[in-house]
Amino acid sequence: MRRVAVLTSGGDAPGMNAAIRAVARTGIDRHWTIVGVRRGYAGLMSGDFVPLGARDVGGIIHQPGTFLRSARAPEFKTEEGRERALFHLNREKIDGLVVIGGNGSQTGAAALSNLGVPVVGIASTIDNDLYGSDISIGVDTALNIGLEAIDRLRATASSHERAFLIELMGRDCGYLALIAAIAGGAEAVVIPEVAADPDSVVRELQDAHRRGKSHGLVVVAEGAEYNADAIARHVIGHQDRIGFELRVTKLGHVQRGGIPSVADRLLATRLAAGAVEQLARGETGTLVGLRAGEVAATPLAEVANRKKELDPALLEFARILAR
Ligand code: F6P
């Protein structure tokens, strides 16, 4: 019988609990013993393991966050930290590890794989910047939260004929901001992937006002060269040119704490089942993600330290549809 450990690492994402549940139950279905590691790599380095039976993962599919908890663990980047993790994996007789997380977490998984640990990653980050998966767990829910905020802000913006800068998460990737801007009908979007100075936002808003719009919604990715605060400082000095009064709303971690959508629960379940299948076949050192609608594995060595590029066609959409 195999002993498989599962952990969640890095920023939590809605759907992580659904993934833990599916790893546990599909593993148990194969008569494996499943154990959870608390607080991600920090728990791996301190030996914080908990048994995960079928009942232990009951009642969590709908819960945001991760009941195993998560952490950012800089010590895991050191040789000593990884040796400590290996020690505990050996002591617990773990012969398979599932890492649910985003870029940094999968880079850690690749390092463990290089040390001989049979590890499989599951693509999970709201940022959707992970190479090897068209979409990752948490993105759909985080997008819908961003979209709901835009819809609500449009109502009040139109009533008062105001402009809003709406800052969304995404670290150094503009995916969440771009898709929410397209789906929310924003007048402009500012993302790290496209150079934009604060005065271009002034011009966009001025133009929207001249075209007779009753509001000006600008979605700003937190990782853009000029974030919402920097743009606001500039725009406020040019308020008379724009025609709209300006307000700023930053979503921050609100965007990460949503009840996982149907799409995220299903994606989490499919990817987790795929990860267990990879372990069963002995095809480890891989990241399980979704590619062209299918569950697919990519070598962790290709995923580590790499960022997925944004589709340029989406950028063009945002520009055309803002008319
Ligand atoms: O990677 C997910 C993410 O939510 C990013 O969008 C954001 O920049 C970052 O994590 C915030 O990290 P923390 O929760 O450690 O402040």
In short:
By secondary structure, this protein is an alpha/beta fold.
How would you sum up this structure, described in words?
- By secondary structure, this protein is of the alpha/beta class.
- Helix content is 43%, strand content 18%.
- Strands 3-2-1-4-5-10-11 form a 7-stranded mixed beta sheet, with helices on both faces. The protein has a 4-stranded parallel beta sheet with strand order 7-8-6-9, sandwiched between helices.
- The longest helix is centred in the middle third of the chain and has 22 residues, at 139-160.
- 51% of the residues are buried.
- Bound molecules: 6-O-phosphono-beta-D-fructofuranose.
- 6-O-phosphono-beta-D-fructofuranose binds at residues 11, 72, 102, 125-127, 169-171, 222, 256.
What's the structural blueprint in terms of helices and strands?
Blueprint: E1 3-8, H1 16-29, E2 33-37, H2 40-46, E3 49-51, H3 79-91, E4 96-101, H4 103-114, E5 119-123, H5 139-160, E6 162-168, H6 175-184, E7 188-190, H7 198-210, E8 216-221, H8 228-236, H9 239-242, E9 245-250, H10 262-281, E10 286-291, E11 294-299, H11 300-303, H12 312-321
Parallel strand pairs: 1-2, 1-4, 4-5, 5-10, 6-8, 6-9, 7-8
Antiparallel strand pairs: 2-3, 10-11
Helix pairs in contact: 1-10, 2-3, 5-6, 6-12, 7-8
6-O-phosphono-beta-D-fructofuranose binds at residues 11, 72, 102, 125-127, 169-171, 222, 256.
